[in-house]
Write a structure and sequence with these properties.
Its main location: cytoplasm. The protein has two domains: about 210 residues, Leucine-rich repeat, LRR (right-handed beta-alpha superhelix); about 280 residues, Phospholipase C Beta, Chain: A (Up-down Bundle), CATH 1.20.1230. Helices cover about 60% and strands about 5% of the residues.
Length: about 500
């Protein structure tokens, strides 16, 4: 008991307190000076002594991740807490405090030496995780039943046990009880257990020992079964994880392939569009040159006719000859413009003289070929997904068969709420088959959606380009026809005007 602290003001484990404690434990001399100069690093501290500090609550120790030895003895601590991060701790002293319940030690799996001496503990509990524990000091507490010590039987590494000062230690059978029922203990209350005590204990507690041994065997059997169950659960989790990772990897592969194929097709579309644009621009320049030369010739003829009319030198036969020549020029222009347009149309469609990138039919062939490659890549990926799903389904079936076998043997490794399900093999296999079909059908639907989407994309592009070329060609022909008709109408009008002027002059 720690009544000497009843009137002491509790202390908080502050950063200042921790820094001072670490500083006090620094090496002496030059080494200590260097440590202090470099700064105090809690994460590197191996030992921390917080004895006689009037500490009420364990807190703020999360930074001491490398700590191996911790002294918290002779304080006012009532509850074991705040130690979860000290997973490297090997030595823990909580003696001379006010602790009533053992708790908060589950994460200290590397602990080798534990002292809870002189507290208020009534039950030895919550220490099953301390499988590396070698020394346990629980003396001077309030343990009154020898059965309290049975829990130590589960800690096979404990060789030294101190329970002196507890009411149970006054029991005449105390040492023989420990010798018989906690057989791994070598030193009890710092005295070696002799062979005579072991013999007395074995004889006196033969029946309880047989019962405990039987329970241990049953527990070991259950643990073995639990390990099998855990192993199968791990197999299930591993199967799910592998299936998920493989499926995600395959989906990423499908995405990468699809993206690559899309950009390849897009580059081909862009290249073809650029070639068509370039050919159209060249064609238009040729047409403009033809029209410019025609307009120059037309202007010359019209000027000659107007000049002759102004000078009253109009000869009807000469006018007819000149206008007939111009009509022929108009016809020649029409022929050349139509030939120019036909040449462009042939280039775009599939002219023998056109390069592959400028041929619509060649472009269609390439685009269809690339589309087929893309669809084949999608089908290959979908096949991989179906194979992965089949392997996953087979693994689930194996795990289910394992549980069904356990249910048939009425073993306890299967939870009660699952036994009814696994009693009916047909139901289980039907459910597995149904889930397999659902996943397979989903893969099929995704495959069809992507394949149809790729084909629709290609068909739409090709149809759009064909329609665009047809509209352009028709519009161009109408434009040429309209222009030629206007030119013919113009020269006819000029001819009529000149002849009318000539007749007017003759009448005067």
């Amino acid at each position: 008991m720690v009544s000497i602290y009843d009137c002491t003001e509790p202390t908080v484990i502050s950063e200042e307190l921790l820094s001072k404690a670490v500083e006090e434990q620094s090496p002496e001399g030059e080494a200590g000076r260097i440590v202090l100069q470099d700064g105090i690093k809690f994460a590197e501290a191996k030992t921390l002594v917080l004895s006689f500090r009037s500490i009420l609550q364990i807190e703020n120790l999360w930074s001491f991740s490398a700590l191996q030895r911790l002294n918290l003895d002779n304080n006012l601590i009532e509850k074991i807490e705040g130690l979860d991060f000290l997973v490297n701790l090997k030595w823990l002293d909580l003696s001379f405090n006010n602790i009533e319940v053992i708790a908060g030690l589950n994460n200290l799996i590397n602990l080798e030496d534990l002292s809870l001496f002189n507290n208020r503990i009534r039950k030895l509990e919550n220490i099953e995780n301390l499988q590396k524990l070698q020394v346990l000091c629980i003396g001077n507490n309030k343990l009154d039943e020898l059965d309290n010590l049975i829990v130590v039987r589960r800690l096979k590494s404990v060789k030294t046990l101190n329970a002196n000062g507890n009411p149970l230690a006054t029991n005449p059978s105390y040492r023989s009880f420990v010798a018989a029922l906690v057989p791994q203990i070598v030193y009890l209350d710092y005295r070696r257990i002799d062979q005579e005590t072991k013999a007395i204990g074995a004889e006196k507690y033969s029946t309880p020992l047989e019962t405990l041994n039987a329970k241990d065997k049953m527990k070991q059997a259950r643990l073995a079964e639990k390990e099998i169950e855990d192993e199968n659960d791990k197999l299930y989790q591993a199967a799910c994880k592998t299936f998920r990772e493989n499926l995600l990897g395959t989906c990423k592969e499908a995405f990468d392939v699809g993206l690559s194929e899309y950009y390849t097709r897009k580059e081909e579309v862009d290249a073809f569009s650029a070639a068509v644009t370039e050919a159209t621009a060249t064609n238009q320049k040729t047409a403009v040159d033809l029209v410019d030369r025609f307009v120059a010739a037309k202007t010359k003829i019209v000027n000659e006719l107007n000049q002759a009319a102004e000078q009253d030198q109009v000869n009807t036969e000469w006018v007819a000859t000149l206008t007939a020549e111009h009509q022929q020029q108009i016809q020649n222009l029409n022929n050349k413009l139509m030939e120019n347009e036909l040449y462009l149309s042939d280039q775009v469609e599939a002219s023998a003289s056109a390069s592959a990138s400028e041929s619509l039919k060649e472009f269609e062939r390439l685009l269809v070929e690339m589309t087929q490659n893309a669809m084949e890549a999608v089908r290959n990926v979908a096949t991989q997904m179906r194979d992965q799903e089949t392997r996953f389904h087979e693994q689930l079936a194996d795990i289910s068969l394992f549980y069904m076998d356990k249910v048939m043997k009425d073993e306890e490794v299967v939870p009660e709420h699952m036994k009814e399900l696994f009693l009916d093999k047909d139901t289980v296999m039907s459910a597995l088959g149904g889930s397999h079909d659902v996943r397979t059908n989903k893969i099929d639907r995704v495959e069809d959606k992507i394949v149809l989407g790729v084909k629709a994309w290609t068909d739409t592009r090709l149809e759009t380009m064909r329609d665009s070329e047809i509209r352009r060609n028709r519009s161009r022909i109408l434009e040429i026809t309209h222009f030629v008709d206007c030119q013919r109408a113009d020269i006819d009008e000029v001819e009529r005007t000149i002849l009318q002027k000539s007749q007017t002059h003759d009448a005067e």
